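Researcher: Please predict.
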Amino acid sequence: MHARDILSRPEVPVRPETPLTEAIEQLIEDGFAALSVVADRDQVVGMLSESEVLAASSAVDTSIVDAVTVPVEVVRPGTGMSTIAHRMLSAGLRSIRSRRTHTGSR
């Protein structure tokens, strides 16, 4: 089993300039534990998790960039499940992002 088999939900990334309130709505609507914060050319610049949202929700003017976790753990679609489990357990992660294979389209 590989990342592509277990990380199968379509990802809904947010941009660094996305308002935090909009990102919170996205987390709630889609039921994700975290959202990838993606800049130009699909470069992951952070992860916004439920715990970061809770910590940042008391700050009215907090931006996504101020609230995200960096660096981000990224795996390839062909990464084995045991490797993913080891990385998540050893780093205490609840979320990990799978890097899409670039096909020229979004």
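Model: The helical segments are 3-6, 20-30, 50-56, 64-67, 81-91.
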